[in-house]
Amino acid sequence: MEAHRNAEAQALTVRTMLLDDREYQVDVRRKVSLAPEAPRIVVVSYQGNAAARELLRVCIAGVQRFTPEPHELWIVDNNSPEEHLDWLIEWPGINLALNRTEPLPREELDRSHAETGQHGQKNWGSYANAVGLELGLKAIDPETSFLVTMHMDALPCSEGWLSFLQSKITGRIAASGVRIDRTRTPEGVLHVLGYMVDFQIFRGLGLDFFPDLPHLDVGDRVTIRLREAGYEVFACPNTVWEPELAETIPPSSPLRHLHVDRAFNDNGEVIFLHLGRGVRRSIGEHRKGIGAEEWARFVDEHLLAGA
Question: Is 275 a member of any domain?
Answer without folding.
Answer: no
